[in-house]
Amino acid sequence: MRPTDHVLVIFGASGDLTYRKLLPALFDLYSQSVLPENFIVLGVARSPMSRNDFCDKMKEGIINFSNLGKKYDSLIEPFLSRIDYLSIDTSDKSEYVKLKEKLLSIDNLYRTKGNYLFYLATPPNMYDTIAFNLKAVDLHIEIPNRYFRRIIVEKPFGYDLSSALELNNKLHAVFSEQQLYRIDHYLGKETVQNILVFRFSNGLFEPIWNRNFIHHIEITAAETLGVGNRGRYYEQSGAIRDMLQNHLMHLVALVAMEPPVLFEAHALQNEMVKVLQALRPLDKDSIESNIVRGQYTGARTNRGNLLAYREEKDVAPDSNTETFVAMKLFIDNWRWADVPFYIRTGKRLPSQLTEIIIHLKATPQALFKGQCTGPSCNKIILRIQPEEGIGMQFGLKSPGTGYNVRQVQMDFKYSELANTYIPSAYERLLLDAMHGDPALFIRSDAVEATWKFIDPLLQYIQTNKDFKLFGYPSCTWGPEEANQLIPEGWSEYPAYCSIEEEPKFTILS
Ligand code: NDP
């Protein structure tokens, strides 16, 4: 079923997210005929631009970044006919009268019935201002069974616990929680949703998914790229706020949550929140012994000479921002008591991947020659990206005489499941918000729980200048100190780049 007819109003429409992600995803939805019959995208930003100029720019974005633009290029022009642009000063309340008039005229022309989905793709300091300005002209008011008003809010949602609470309060002063869709595009990925199906549709795994059988869990989200031209943003954010507080915490919640009683948004989100609320709070001792921060340094590699983070554009030469963080954490509940979760994320690492590895406990006795002993003999690998899929590792008899054991891996690639198109995360989430399905969006109590967990770490970094920031050469797996977090070591991955000199690990501050 297609969503109800509506206007999608994107604030910050002159920016990078709209150009590279949102419009390409909308085009892909359009090509699959899943958008409403009557549907208009209204781009709103301060930059003066004619409708034609905006369409030209969006066309370029669609050609370069959509999945289906090449296959259905004849649909690009019809899609662009559904796009409009309005230049207003989004910080000025009085300008919203123009927005309201524009929306009314769109409703009259295109029969969009007063249904508006707002998308905040602006810098985060504009989120509350835009919400208040929408309220000033009553654009926030929805009337059930007549028309809806919803608002999608991009990450980052807050800068720390107090700013997240403040933002929640301010947004709640305008929109109800049911109208608010906080996006984490990781949850829009097919393989992330597949964690739920894998866990809860199989009798095979759920009985062993607990402290009795699992030795430890490892999550890696590695990027090969450096900070590029996003230095200004990243200096304020760092790996903790950019990746750990949201994407990695949500992966932990999905892997660790209890089965929901029903497969619907409220039940699902309740279980995710319970895990986040059960994270063992961080204190001085756990921060110092269980968390390693790093920042990439320059290196000579087979991909050329790579710059140090401190040499990147808009980065302070003495920056204390981490580009890598590794952490050991615990979930204090019955299912997970004392099972360590090891999570790490970083930029300029040797591979680009996101993976969750469940390490099962070994058999109590080793009966066979060559049998793997200790933990990690049996692994379940949930591959989020790339080559999305699931793998399992176990021992089998080597062919021939005797009983020699060999570790083998059974691999399932998601792309082999069917010859169907796999939608991008933004396609999935935009469509869900259009349908009014909040299941894959982050509820306010989940946001608060993750910030509550991370906040002591942020405060500790700020107040303890001697909490070390380790330098790791670009194209290595982060500081050596991170390797010592897991006694068994992190799993090894194929490398996209290799370092062509003796790596120099340093202490930056
Ligand atoms: P950009 O800076 O590229 O664009 C944001 C747009 O917001 C600008 O085009 C600008 O338009 C408008 N804007 C900027 N400053 C102000 C201001 N002070 N007042 C009013 N409007 C302003 O950012 P992105 O598109 O990259 O990101 C948008 C949001 O999405 C951010 O919150 C970001 O964190 C988030 N995000 C982005 C991702 C990405 O891949 N780019 C990924 C995940 C999240 P104009 O000047 O014309 O008004």
Structure commentary:
It contains 13 helices and 18 strands. The mean pLDDT is about 95. The termini are far apart. Strands 16-15-14-13-7-12-11-8-17-18 form a ten-stranded mixed beta sheet. It has about 500 residues and is α/β, with parallel strands linked by helices. It has helices at about 15-30, 50-65, 75-80, 95-110, 125-135, 160-170, 190-200, 230-255, 265-275, 285-290, 425-435, 445-465, 480-485; strands at about 5-10, 40-45, 85, 115-120, 150-155, 180, 215-220, 290-295, 300, 305, 325-330, 340-345, 355-360, 380-385, 390-395, 405-415, 470-475, 505. NADPH dihydro-nicotinamide-adenine-dinucleotide phosphate binds near residues 16, 17, 46, 90 and 91.
Ordered list of secondary-structure elements with their pairings:
Layout: E1 6-11, H1 16-31, E2 39-45, H2 51-65, H3 76-80, E3 83-87, H4 96-110, E4 116-120, H5 127-136, E5 149-153, H6 161-172, E6 180-182, H7 190-200, E7 214-222, H8 231-256, H9 265-277, H10 284-290, E8 291-297, E9 299-301, E10 304-306, E11 324-329, E12 341-346, E13 353-360, E14 378-385, E15 389-397, E16 405-413, H11 425-435, H12 444-463, E17 469-473, H13 480-483, E18 506-507
Parallel strand pairs: 1-2, 1-4, 2-3, 4-5, 5-6, 7-12, 8-17
Antiparallel strand pairs: 7-13, 8-11, 9-10, 11-12, 13-14, 14-15, 15-16, 17-18
Helix pairs in contact: 1-2, 1-11, 6-12, 8-9, 8-12, 9-12
The structure holds NADPH dihydro-nicotinamide-adenine-dinucleotide phosphate.
NADPH dihydro-nicotinamide-adenine-dinucleotide phosphate binds at residues 12, 14-17, 21, 45-47, 90-91, 121-124, 126, 154-156.
